[in-house]
Amino acid sequence: MHGFCRHSIVLIAHVLLCAPAGMGWAHDAPPATHHLDPIVVEAHYDNAVGTTDAASQGRINARLIESRPTLRPAEVLEFVPGVIVTQHSGGGKANQYFLRGFNLDHGTDFATFVDGMPANMPTHAHGHGYTDLNWLIPELIDRIDYRKGPYCAEEGDFSSAGAARLSIRNTVERGIAEAGIGEDGYRRGLLIDSRALGDGTLLYALEASRSDGPWVNPDDFRRVNGVLRYSFGRDADRTSITAMAYAARWDSTDQIPLRAVQSGLIGRFDTIDPSSGGRTQRHSLSFDTQRLRDDGVFRLNAFAIQSELDLWSNFTYLLENPVDLNPAGIDGDQFRQSEKRRTFGLATSRSWDGRLGDRSLTHTLGVQLRHDRIDPVGLYSTVQRATVATVQQSRVRQTSVGLYGESTIQWLPWLRSVAGLRADHFDFDVESSIAQNSGRARDHIVTPRLSLVFGPWHRTEYFVNAGHGFHSNDGRGTTARVTAKGGLPVSPVDALVRTRGGELGVRTEIVPGLQSSLAIWMLTLDSELLFVGDAGETEPNRASRRSGIEWNNRWTVRPWLLFDLDVAASRARFTDHDAAGRHVPGAVDTVVAFGASVRDRGPWFGHLQVRHIGPRPLVEDNAQRSASTTLASLRVGYRLNRDVRLALDVFNLFDRKASDIDYFYASRLRGEAPGGVEDRHFHPVEPRSARLTLTTNF
């Protein structure tokens, strides 16, 4: 702790050394800004020259979110260029995410916030960083601010690959009532409205939906959602209080072995264990305020979240518990991952604007606190969802404190720097049903960040970004001494693992109506150990390096016609030499997304979205690779009058037979050898389906 305090003092001193000069002249004149002549690009992204500190940073506005069809709520993250969202299990489980050569699993290394509340769950029953966004109502999202790489001091844990901050609307111009119907048992009802109340505005939203999916064993995915928000003030001085509630239950069709489909044992949309599934709930209360001061801005966000999850899965079938070979044993490999969690947090910052001669300055100091109380979090052996044995059950108290400072200086009309420093401290307190795995651990890390922005010249600016970030590990792994299964000795994992990144970029508006950016990036991860929730034990992983290039384009061809094109290529390799190979399993090497929007063309509107995911290695030696996947979705809509519109959404437009995700590992079906069979396991893309939505404004 002494080291952490020492680093914290250094952090504050680093910012305050510059602050007096800036604050001393704060009232002499407003900060100078290098102005460009306005150029109107009414597109889906607010990424104009002069608005960001990196070529890979940007903002997505509500109009894009409204225009594009989404099969799942979490697909709103695909609006972030290069992000891919898929699913390998039932509809209520957190999605799988991919970005910049990372298989992010259920959210690790990509930080997601909704109105300041973190969506990533550390030390989670299913996987560290688990990000379930099924409680989102896409129609409520006002904007998405995104960053990539460890270059911004505000972003801490889980953000090495990137971060997205979603903001919810305070009001709607007119009420919204929607009714949706579709194939595979899809039904959805939505009501959103806002009313003046006292000096502020009360916004409420209610959503209910269900879907079976195309599966032989129907998902029977049912969810209900509610949001209540009171806000007052406007522009720079605003405050909001928000309550959210969500509950869902579902049956799962997990990934299935290819050999079972090829032999005719099951079909593409069938399952091996029909009793898999889950249930979850989430409730939250949050407070957010921003106050404009004479010399800057004060911000405060506080939140409390209560959540529960029970998840039943079976990925290996009869490999560990072969009841056909041992009738006295447990019937199959099904397991339950369960947790009950309460999360409390606070984030506050103060910025100061000022001048030093001809230079404009902005200094920011921020504090972020988070405390998770997880009791219990466990892994259990089950049969038909009935618990038959406890593998490991824990009570965890996890606390993190982050301090950061950032200084922005306009050195010259064509040169701006953003220098930041961040210090984080983590405490873990674990009480396990396996006595040897109980204990306490702590760790801290200091991470510098720097961005340089050159220009603009001819409506073009250039970026140089570098920084260190970090990735935390599951708290149970920091105190583990023996494996949960077998009791074999293991070493505790590193609580915090350093990452290092760099980026060169350019953004231009030299072509009227076109915003284009290009970024070349690199990211390395130190050697680390991971705690695997599916096994209840630690698993070694190696140091890695990822690099790539991203090209993003927004083109307003006509006021009613807009095109988006994003191309990303990456290379992921382990940095050490191992006989197993150097390829990083699951790392996507190519992502291409194309969108075309038609709006206000008489009564008609529509959107076409095409997404391509390149092949990826499934094992370290690259001997097994997944196939590429190209999918298209289409929305065609018609405004019946000012208040009523009808929209038809078609997903998997060309009915491609592909995989949402692929894995390669050993599993065992009834009658196979005791050691099982190494095989490809896949979760198929849902076949072409259509949904019809009637929307009424009132």
Report on this model:
- By secondary structure, the chain is mainly β.
- The chain has a single domain, classed as Maltoporin, Chain A, CATH 2.40.170.20.
- Helices cover 5% and strands 56% of the residues.
- It has four helices and 37 strands.
- It has a 22-stranded antiparallel barrel.
- The chain starts with a helix and ends with a strand.
Quick structural summary:
The chain is mainly beta.
How helical, in percent, are the residues? under 10%
Total helical elements: 4
CATH superfamily: TonB-dependent receptor, beta-barrel domain
Provide the CATH topology. Maltoporin, Chain A
CATH-derived architecture: Beta Barrel
Mean pLDDT across all residues, rounded? Answer: 91
Radius of gyration: 25 Å
The tally of beta strands, per DSSP, is 37
Report the top-level CATH class.
Answer: Mainly Beta
Structural class: mainly beta
Q: What is the oligomer described by this structure?
A: single chain
Q: What is the CA-CA span between the terminal residues?
A: 57 Å
Runs with pLDDT <50, length 5+? Answer: 1-43
Overall tally of structural domains: 1
Keywords:
698 residues; mainly beta; Maltoporin, Chain A; 22-stranded antiparallel barrel; five-stranded mixed sheet; 4 helices; 37 strands; 56% strand
